[in-house]
Protein: histidine kinase
Amino acid sequence: MAKIPFNVSARTARLIGRENVSNLGGALTELIKNTYDADASVCILYYEKTTNSLVIADNGIGMTEKIVIDNWMTIGNSTKTTNFKTISGRIKTGEKGIGRFALDRISSNCIMHTISEDSNFQWTLNWDDFGENALITETYAELNSSNESLCSFLKFVKNSNVIKLVNRELKNTGTCFRLTGLRDEWNSGIIVHIRNTLSKLLPPDNRNGFKLYFFEESSTMKESIIKSAFLDTYDYKINFELYNNNQCTVTINRNEFDFGNKFEKIMNDAFFTNEDRNYFKGKPIIINTNLKKLLPGADNIDNLGEISGDIYFYKLRYQEKYADRYFYKEFTSRKANFKEISGIKIYRDNFIVRPYGFYDTSGYDWLNLSTRKAESPAAISHKSGSWRVQANQMCGQVFISRLNRALPDKSSREGIVETSEFILFREFITKIISYFEYDRQYVIRKLDTYQKKVAEGEKALELAKLALEKLERKDANNDTRNNEKNNEYNNNYSEQKDEKETYNNFKKAIEYQEERIESLETEMGLLRTLATTGVVVNTYIHEIKALTTKMNMGIKEAYELLQEDNNQDGAIKELKKLRKLRKDFTSWFKVTLDSVKKDKRKRKKINLYELIENTILMWRDAQKDIIEYKVIKQAEVTLRCFAFDFESIINNLVTNSFSAFKIAGIQAPKIKISLGYNSEYNYIKYEDNGPGLSEAFKENPDEILEQNVTDRRNGNNELIGTGMGLWIVKNIIQEYNGYIDLSSNSTLKEGFQIILYFKGGQKN
Structure:
């Protein structure tokens, strides 16, 4: 039996390269990476318009003949896979062995001159030789020994500043490419784009001694050096370090506020803590946490590895009305270089990973900050909402390395493979940002409350002054009035008439305002109920889909029995089965839609025990009694309320318990609800025998009351819980002047307990 080898057409090999290096910016990035991996301290790009050529030169270690033949000329073979550290200690950035096809993306002709410690030669290739019919084994490059220096090789360069730099920096080893027949039109727009791309290749605090230049024919040395884009002023800085043991340190610096000579007054009157005093004066806020807390319920967290970064928040505009209210520091507009600096970028071993954080690309908002903002649009001063930052208000760098094996680069050189670990990586960075969001909202809320107090005090003082002035005028006019007794009756009558008219106007205004408030409260309650319906449907979607599938199959079976077999008895039997399914559907419709009935949209006196019993009865029918419910009445509570508010509370709690039972595989699930009254509050005590709170929330159980906080995940480690249920419950209880107690969950080994305290109504 003969053994025959595979071969590959040259065109196919070329297409592999083209697919993996698809644009000019990416091609240049790949070639500059190679200079970095060669331990170069200087890399020079020179575009010469008159000859339509490009030079890429570096003072790295160069290549030997063996490396050129065995590695450079072998597609997919790279020395960097196993030998990934340079002599100077740099971590090499590439390993796939296809970056050389970047040369083909840039031009049709290439001459490479490379000098190592013991060799000197030139390599020449016309990429158009990779023709339609030629095989890769029939396509050749020329390799010739040389005695020429790099300076001599570049003697054709017309810019004297390039020659000076080459003579100074490229005296010994290095590699130079001369590329002719450029495939792109290098107009002014392309050149600006290239400069912007190059400014992002290295992090702002580049400490690897790597300098990058981009010359044109008439460029000066100063104009040509590429400086990393950086933010010179910021409002908040967030630094973080994730270690191999999954411990994490987050450091937050406040730089947004300036209280001037009002510092002490505001610290006292706004009830800031002593720690806050120090934080406003420059002391960093340090948070020590770990991945279990940051990524509750997640698997594979040990695979993430070490990650670090610096993230900055900045306002784009200085708005006087908010600046005065919240004591913002003054700054000039930051929009000038906004596109260059905005976005959170990823650096692997101190070299950019495209396209994350690049403006006007699909990877600009790779953390989905805009989606988070849309899901939680609350103003920063909102008393209960969770403020979310916008994508264009953040910039910074996240640092990973090739040792983060669970975060591999795509072969296309455009991003990281979206493994389940990448999903966790993205969530981890978002959680780091949430620490800053919480701190900024904490500060603004306190300042907003302070300003409202000041405004109310000043208003009261002004009213008091006006009343005093009125009394003083009245006293001053007493003598005059005594002399005008004849007109007194008419004056009194006129004043009384004016006062009555004013009273009626005030009364109408107050009544109108109260009607508006009640209308808005009703609307908000209805929206919460609709949101609860969404939460319930999302949780039970599999059960509802299963019912739908069974019903469709039953209808199809009955139809076929009648149409094809003329079997009426069989069809009737199938249709009888559908009756039961219809009842099951009705049970689910009651649970999901009953709360929004018209008669429940008005505030009225309701017996809460009866309401809870009826709600649980609907759940029993829908769940086929798989959960054992117990409702205990410890006191009669009649409350003037919206029925849908308390139905939403029960529905959200039951839905959460059901999810927990299902995930933990609880064999005999139980839910106990107690209704009672203490000396001050009504209360609903809700308990289940599920797995209890995740360890991530044990330290601070109240965290689960915040919007979008959840630990429910799918098989890809993606969060699938809505994070809305308990937030809705919290908002309803606040409407009834109450609070929520979750403290017992910190010590419970299993099971979940929540006590809802609220006011109003009659107790017996």
